[in-house]
Design brief:
The chain is about 40% helix and about 20% strand. It has about 230 residues and is α/β, with parallel strands linked by helices. It has a single domain, classed as 3-Layer(aba) Sandwich (Rossmann fold). A five-stranded parallel β-sheet has the order 2-1-3-6-7, with helices on both faces. Strands 4-5 form a two-stranded antiparallel sheet. Strand 1, helix 1 and strand 2 form a beta-alpha-beta unit. The protein is globular, with a radius of gyration of 18 Å. About 35% of the residues are buried.
């Protein structure tokens, strides 16, 4: 059984009256899903656009509910955690997680961070044991593949490049992904959006080609695991 969880986080739509406002990250993710559908059977496809429909931010009441033993939670506390439970269930079912994200102020959109905050939760997606010494947290989920699809206005965020230290998007996604149970990560990126020159067009075309190729790779690997 192959379950795909697709999370979009740009506040922009894929298509707009002003094409300059089209979401590149969403368009690339949509292309990936389309090609994946064409080359493999998907038993369940779950899509959440958290950019348009953001999860609630966690609150003091949310934290209080999380740290209240489940059997002792009030009806209000259970309601407070209902969305978190739903989002965690989606992650748990997924074999492949696709996250598309623009780079906002060198990091992820607040809406995507809110999604992670609802999911990374003690005794649900990780546990805590001081017997592990200085690394007491350990993920409870495993065996998932993550596809990260990003777009940025600038460029050169890889090691050794001009903006190497500026990106807090993909490094943050990589750090958090282990609490989704991710064991394999693939990345696709489009850069130079704010420059709007041939470099941007070349970067976008490269990303589209990589997206199609990656769909075939994921399809093959998921079929091997069945």
């Amino acid at each position: 059984m192959t379950v795909i969880l697709h999370i979009d986080s740009s506040v922009r739509a894929i298509t707009n009256d002003n094409t300059e406002h089209n979401s590149i990250s969403k368009a690339l993710a949509s292309l990936f899903i389309s090609h994946l559908h064409s080359v493999t059977n998907i038993d369940e496809y779950i899509h959440r656009d958290v950019g348009v429909n953001p999860p609630q931010f966690i609150t003091q009441d949310w934290i209080g509910a999380v740290f209240t033993p489940e059997a002792q939670r009030t009806a209000m506390q259970r309601q407070t955690l209902a969305l978190s439970d739903e989002l965690i269930a989606e992650v748990s079912r997924a074999d492949v997680i696709v996250i598309s994200s623009p780079m906002y102020n060198y990091g992820m959109p607040a809406q995507l961070k809110a999604w992670f905050d609802q999911i990374i939760r003690i005794n649900k997606t990780f546990d805590f044991d001081l017997a592990r010494g200085d690394k007491p947290l350990a993920p409870l989920l495993s065996s998932k593949t993550l596809v990260i699809i990003t777009s940025s206005g600038e460029f050169g965020f890889e090691k050794g490049e001009i903006n190497e230290t500026a990106s807090h998007l993909v490094p943050h996604l990589r750090t958090l992904s282990k609490y989704l149970g991710v064991e394999k990560i693939y990345e696709i990126k489009s850069e130079y959006q704010e420059f709007g020159d041939r470099r941007h067009e070349q970067s976008l075309q490269t990303a589209k080609s990589q997206t199609k190729a990656l769909a075939a790779v994921i399809a093959e690997k998921t079929s091997e695991s069945l």
